[in-house]
């Protein structure tokens, strides 16, 4: 399975999220992660949508159709699929781990290797915050699981294209 990332600038108003996500569900695509946040202009939000497909050739064609249909929505200002090799992808994760006085040093060492920041400590737990690629976050989870993950929260993927290429209000409506 391969992951596709769609980035869209949309009007920041009620109902936009529902209309955008509806296009994916009607076509049978499961959204793995959808993040939405206000841009430097409070009337515009950026959506980053991560979708896994089954690897079938028809999936790529259907995704292209979805992007074209998104582009036709009134609330959508600009949209494009980001190429995985030419974009920066990050996620933030908070993890609460069981950590008593015996295993606390090991948990802290693992967190340090992944450049995770300790944001809360109690006699029985440590909560760390880590930012990075999905692979980095999954690697950290793999090593922390034996100690007991008590809670986990992930933001979902955010992505921007590398270099001078931008998705902006001035981007042409038809980017295909």
CATH structural class of the largest domain: Alpha Beta
DSSP helical segment count? 4
- Our count of domains comes out at 2
Classify the helix fraction into a percent range.
25-40%
CATH topology descriptor of the largest domain? Alpha-Beta Plaits
Q: Beta-strand level of the residues, as a percent range?
A: 35-45%
Q: What's the mean pLDDT score?
A: 87
Uncertain spans, ≥5 residues at pLDDT below 50? none
Number of strands: 9
- Derived from helix and strand composition plus strand pairing, the structural class reads alpha+beta
CATH architecture of the largest domain: 2-Layer Sandwich
* CATH superfamily placement of the largest domain: ACT domain
Order of helices and strands: EHEEHEEHEEHEE
Termini separation comes to: 23 Å
| Overall radius of gyration | 19 Å
Shape: elongated
Characterize the main sheet: 5 strands, antiparallel
3D structure, described in words:
- The strands form 2 sheets. Strands 5, 6, 7, 8 and 9 form a 5-stranded antiparallel β-sheet that branches. Strands 2-3-1-4 form a 4-stranded antiparallel β-sheet, covered by helices on one side.
- With 176 residues, the chain is an alpha+beta fold.
- It is elongated.
- The chain folds into 2 domains: 3-82, ACT domain (Alpha-Beta Plaits); 88-158, ACT-like. Chain A, domain 2 (Alpha-Beta Plaits).
- Helices cover 27% and strands 39% of the residues.
- The chain has helices at 16-26, 57-72, 104-113, 134-144, and strands spanning 3-11, 31-38, 44-52, 76-82, 87-98, 117-121, 125-132, 149-154, 158-161.
- The chain contains 4 helices and 9 strands.
- Strand 6 and strand 7 (125-132) form a beta hairpin.
């Amino acid at each position: 399975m391969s992951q596709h990332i769609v980035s869209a600038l949309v009007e920041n108003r009620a109902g936009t999220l529902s209309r955008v996500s509806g296009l994916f569900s009607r076509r049978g695509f499961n959204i793995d992660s959808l993040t939405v946040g206000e841009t430097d202009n409070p009337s515009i939000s950026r959506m980053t949508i991560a979708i896994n497909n089954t690897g079938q050739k028809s999936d790529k064609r259907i995704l292209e159709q979805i992007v074209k249909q998104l582009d036709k929505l009134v609330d959508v200002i600009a949209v494009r699929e980001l190429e995985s090799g030419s974009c920066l992808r990050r996620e933030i994760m908070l993890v609460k781990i069981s950590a008593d006085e015996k295993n606390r040093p090991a948990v802290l060492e693992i967190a340090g290797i992944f450049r995770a920041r300790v944001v809360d400590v109690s006699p029985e737990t440590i909560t760390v915050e880590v930012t990075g690629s999905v692979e980095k976050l999954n690697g950290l989870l793999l090593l922390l699981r034996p100690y007991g993950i008590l809670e986990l929260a992930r933001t979902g993927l955010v992505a921007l294209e590398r270099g001078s290429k931008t998705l902006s209000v001035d981007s042409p409506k038809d980017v295909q």
